[in-house]
Write a structure and sequence with these properties.
single chain, alpha/beta, TIM Barrel, 2 domains, eight-stranded parallel barrel, RNA-binding, EC 1.3.1.-, FMN, tRNA dihydrouridine synthase activity, tRNA processing
């Protein structure tokens, strides 16, 4: 029987949040490559629709979100990082079927239910953070997912929908058969605005201690560095932290021993990311998705803004390579002058 990594997870744990068009197998591999041993513990897939997974035609259009490259598998094993599939929807039966598929057909070692995404068109359909307003449906979804798979199960959510309801909502979830609860310190109405309320996350920790001490509680929101994560663990009592947008400020966030990242390292990572993306998806995913990452790598070095502008005009790995070579040539010429 498979061991439950949540039960064995030592505090503090660090995880990279599931993010749409971000945490595919390619970006996860880049983060793994650039993380120090035992600094990153959990990785999550992109949001995966249970409706899409259970649709006769839509299945093939959605299942790429659950792709795991062999090179990523090797790094996961080498660095002892657990990979979790995050799923969303509102039909318990489809959660059951999707959980079965993940357990039987993929190498994910855990499942996470999205009850936190605040995007308006998703919420209008009654999914994700909308479930905060429908606790009974949320319960049915959790039970169906648990029935469909014996993989470790977690829920990612927020502290409320239109208003803060930490006590009632978190207490409800803590009564469910889950192994971990990830709490983002904002309500749906805030989206990503304002500051995450870590005092409410601390309330969730206290509720956990009283109701279900065996459940791991992870805090999420506004953690921009490894040290900030450690500070949050010490101050608010969470078992770990999940980092989302902070990775866009520093893709080397899980390498706290790296005091400075020079231009060469940034551009090498940019190229490796681009090359792996094209080899992985072979034109089946929009190349433009990569451009959000170019902005991450192209900053804080001479000529970065100009290079970034050139990269925004590219549409293939070949063109990216040409832009990088042109940048290097220009820098060398400037140094000779």
């Amino acid at each position: 029987m498979q061991t439950n990594f949540w039960h064995e997870q030592k505090a503090p744990s660090f995880s990279l949040a599931p993010m749409e068009d971000v945490t595919d197998t390619v970006f996860r591999e880049m983060i793994l490559k650039n993380s120090e041993q035992d600094r990153l513990h959990l990785l999550f897939s992109e949001f995966t629709s249970t409706d899409g997974m259970c649709h006769e035609i839509g299945h093939d259009k959605v299942k790429h979100r659950l792709q795991i490259n062999q090179s990523e598998k090797l790094l996961l094993k080498e660095k002892s990082v657990k990979l979790i599939a995050q799923i969303w929807g509102k039909d318990p039966e489809k959660y059951y079927k999707t959980a079965q598929y993940i357990a039987q057909e993929t190498d994910f070692v855990g499942i996470d239910i999205n009850m936190g995404c605040p995007v308006k068109n998703v919420v209008k359909s009654g999914c994700c953070s909308a479930l905060i307003q429908d606790p009974e449906l949320a319960k049915d979804i959790i039970l169906a997912t648990r029935e469909g798979s014996d993989l470790p199960l977690s829920v990612k959510t927020r502290i409320g929908f239109k208003e803060v309801v930490t006590n009632s909502w978190i207490s409800h979830l803590l009564g469910m058969p889950i192994d971990a609860l990830i709490v983002h310190g904002r309500i749906q109405k805030q989206m990503s605005d304002g500051l995450a309320d870590w005092d409410e996350i601390a309330k969730a920790v206290q509720l956990r201690n009283e109701i279900a001490p065996q459940i791991k509680l992870i805090g999420n929101g506004d953690v921009l560095s490894y040290q900030e994560g450690l500070d949050k663990v010490n101050q608010f009592g969470v078992d770990g932290v999940m980092i989302g947008r902070g990775i866009f400020k520093n893709p080397w966030l899980f390498s706290p021993g790296l005091s400075e990242v020079d231009e060469e390292r940034k551009l090498n990572m940019l190229w490796e990311h681009t090359d792996l993306y094209e080899r992985t998806w072979q034109g089946n995913k929009n190349f433009a998705i990569l451009k959000r990452f170019f902005k991450i790598y192209c900053k804080e070095f001479h000529g970065a803004a100009k290079l970034c502008h050139q990269l925004m005009q590219t549409s293939s790995a070949k063109e990216v390579k040409e832009a990088l070579d042109f940048h290097k040539q220009n820098i060398q010429l400037e140094e000779l002058v």
